[in-house]
Automatic annotation (TrEMBL):
<dbReference type="InterPro" id="IPR016163">
    <property type="entry name" value="Ald_DH_C"/>
</dbReference>
<dbReference type="InterPro" id="IPR015590">
    <property type="entry name" value="Aldehyde_DH_dom"/>
</dbReference>
<dbReference type="InterPro" id="IPR016162">
    <property type="entry name" value="Ald_DH_N"/>
</dbReference>
<dbReference type="Pfam" id="PF00171">
    <property type="entry name" value="Aldedh"/>
</dbReference>
<protein>
    <submittedName>
        <fullName>Acyl-CoA reductase-like NAD-dependent aldehyde dehydrogenase</fullName>
    </submittedName>
</protein>
<dbReference type="InterPro" id="IPR016161">
    <property type="entry name" value="Ald_DH/histidinol_DH"/>
</dbReference>
<feature type="domain" description="Aldehyde dehydrogenase">
    <location>
        <begin position="9"/>
        <end position="417"/>
    </location>
</feature>
<keyword id="KW-0560">Oxidoreductase</keyword>
């Protein structure tokens, strides 16, 4: 793309000069349009990804709230004044970066797109959006609803697979914001190193759950099941590996196995059979390496992409389900002798997205959150948290703030301005 020639670049100057309150009003109108089409978007999500309708509608509602949040935060996003000389003015002013490429995933397509697109638009950037090829209709419909309330070319939509996303990340853009696989994120990092674009990445995770001695094993199993099986395990911050203290291991495993049977009636299919095949390959590889299958782990007969909630124990750190992200409804368990061992092994990983610790001892909780090298640590709840929380994923899990008010900072660049009066005469 020619630096000055493509349409998103051409629209950038006018949108950047649009008053922030006016940009916020456009986002409010877009949120209202999405709210009117919420049932349609939820139905599209269900049909394209297999996500149960209620969960899909929850994702749409979250996206609406996010658009409203950035509509309100954009106009009050501010810079700083500096204390310099009496006769001078010194300012630090946030400015739009320019054109933002937004590459969004299939597992929560509306909520994620609303966050990245909303923050980019609120701060005066133009956007080129490529939704996942696994949910193109959902992604396109959402973006069309938003674009209808914007000037021409401020938000453009492109369709295609990963090859299209790769080309977009090397094009004439100023930011590449991506939520998706670690492999794609690594390619984007390399591309941005060449082009100078600013990367915002939330990529894969291998999030551990640590179960300490002294907790109720039935409650701990409920938490583990929620983290492992919700949305068929297809959440960026799903529980991927479980370390349980030997003192509570057997009742915990019994309760988790029972939970898996209950969750089999509550989850939908995986996004497609290819994803299911990847998960099953990891499960069978882990069993072949010596893990014990407690429940699940078998491909059902017939059409579709359903995979049963699966529990394994006897796992070791080098097994497939512990070494890599699974992204399916699988709960691999490793029994450990103490909390220190669990924390040490949980930290020994190339990812750094999130972690959960279940403990009744707040001193141990303090040690845990300080020890684990991840962006988000949750104590005694696998999901939840105050609105607006934003973390920076680490290592292979990405970089930059992808949520909250801090995302506005990622979408802007700061210019320092020093103003002095000119001499008035000889």
């Amino acid at each position: 793309m020619c630096r000055r020639g493509h349409r998103g670049r051409a629209a950038a100057t006018g949108w950047a000069r649009t008053p922030a309150a006016q940009r916020g009003a456009a986002l409010h109108a877009a949120a209202a349009a999405v709210r009117e089409a919420a049932d349609e978007l939820a139905d599209l999500t269900e049909r394209e990804t297999g996500k149960p309708y209620a969960d899909a509608r929850g994702g749409v509602d979250a996206g609406i709230g996010t658009l409203v949040q950035y509509a309100e935060l954009g106009p009050v996003h501010r810079g700083r004044t500096l204390h310099g000389g009496w006769d001078a003015t010194d300012l630090m002013i946030p400015e739009p970066r320019g054109v933002v490429a937004v590459l969004t995933p299939w597992n929560d397509p509306v909520a994620v797109a609303a966050g990245l697109i909303g923050a980019a638009l609120a701060t005066g950037n133009t956007v080129v959006h490529k939704p996942s090829e696994r949910c193109p209709a959902t992604g396109r419909r959402f973006a069309e609803l938003v674009a209808a309330h914007l000037p021409p070319d401020v938000l453009r939509i492109v369709d295609g697979d990963g090859a299209v996303g790769a080309r977009l990340s090397t094009a004439d853009v100023d930011v590449v914001a991506h939520v998706g696989s670690t492999a794609a994120g690594s390619q984007i990092r390399r591309a941005c190193a060449v082009t100078g674009a600013h990367p915002i990445l939330e990529n894969g995770g291998n999030d551990p759950l640590v179960v300490d001695a002294g907790v109720d094993p039935v409650w701990a199993a409920e938490q583990a099941a929620l983290g492992s099986f919700a949305n068929s395990g297809q959440i960026c911050v799903s529980v991927e590996r479980i370390y349980v203290h030997a003192d509570v291991a057997e009742p915990f495993l019994d309760a988790l196995t029972a939970q898996a049977h209950d969750w089999a009636e509550r989850i939908g299919p995986m996004v497609d059979r290819a994803q299911r095949a990847d998960v099953h390959r990891q499960v069978t590889g882990t069993v072949a390496a010596g893990a014990r299958l407690r429940t699940g782990g078998e491909l059902p007969d017939g059409p579709g992409a359903f995979y049963p909630p699966t529990v394994l124990d006897g796992c070791t750190a080098d097994m497939a389900l512990f070494a890599e992200e699974t992204f399916g409804p699988v709960a691999p368990v490793r029994v450990v002798p103490d909390l220190d061992t669990a924390l040490h092994e949980a930290a020994d990983d190339r990812y750094g997205l999130g972690a959960t610790v279940l403990t009744a001892d707040m001193g141990r909780a303090q040690t845990a959150w300080r020890t684990l090298p991840v962006g988000t640590v949750k104590i005694n709840a696998v999901f939840g948290g105050a609105p607006g929380g934003a973390a920076q994923p680490r290592r292979a899990s990405g970089q930059g703030f992808g949520f909250g008010p801090e995302l506005l900072d990622e979408m802007t660049t700061v210019k320092v301005v020093h103003l002095e009066p000119a001499p008035t005469g000889p």
